[in-house]
Amino acid sequence: MLNKTASKSFACLLGIGLIGCTIQLAPAPSDKILEESQSSLIDGLTLLDSMKFGAPNGSYDSRKDTYSALIGKLESVATLIEVRLSPADIESDAVKKIIESSSSNLPALELTEALEKADHKASLNALGEITYLQAIDKACSSMANAEEGIKPTSISWTNSKGEKVEVKPAPKNGMCPTAGHVAIAKKGFTVSMQAVTFYEQLLFDLKGEE
């Protein structure tokens, strides 16, 4: 999720376009990041919508390739954002006016860094939501497909946030992941990826015509 600082930063970016500033406070737009973030959002929602009522216990294998492809795209988006070069020139009277007129107290350099960190964090949050759901899906199937007599009572693992997560087996012919698991993942994924695609599109809008 984007924090209050990032929200203020987006408002500052909009201000650049309003006053016609030619100095970019944000990184240069990237066709690759925009295309992959939009594509990842669509692919992720397609997967999550197909599971909105939950998934039949033990059916992970039918989705594992979809998970792998989506996670690969999300990792690519996060990497592209991480390695993108920072703007070289952020000192200008126009930039200072934007900072002064905004509700943010951050100087230009810190504001730029906050924008970049927010964008990268959002991409990692989206990746984390899908990875988290995949882990639940995989754990449920492992338990459902285990032989009687050696079936575990639960499976535990540590998620990307360092939190220990435990999944208990669903009833026979039950749904696991449940609709609740999917709904939580969808909310976090959607908000995060929409933030990434919004920011990337905003960079193009601010750039304007050459």
Explain how this protein is built.
The structure is a single chain. The chain is mostly helical and 210 residues long. It contains six helices and two strands. It has helices at residues 4-19, 31-50, 64-83, 93-101, 108-144, 179-207; strands spanning 155-158, 164-167. Strands 1-2 form a two-stranded antiparallel ribbon. A hairpin with a 5-residue loop joins strand 1 and strand 2. The model is unreliable at 1-24 and 88-92 (pLDDT under 50).
Question: Summarize this, please?
Answer:
The chain is 62% helix and 4% strand. It is built from six helices and two strands. A two-stranded antiparallel ribbon has the order 1-2.
Instruction: Bin the helical content.
Output: 55-70%
Distance between the termini: 33 Å
Q: Which shape, going by the Cα principal axes?
A: elongated
Report Rg.
21 Å
Uncertain runs:
1-24, 88-92
Strand order of the largest sheet: 1-2
Strand content: under 5%
Helix count equals 6
Pairing-aware structural class of the strands and helices? mainly alpha
**SSE sequence, one letter per element:** HHHHHEEH
What's the arrangement of secondary structure elements?
Blueprint: H1 4-19, H2 31-50, H3 64-83, H4 93-101, H5 108-144, E1 155-158, E2 164-167, H6 179-207
Antiparallel strand pairs: 1-2
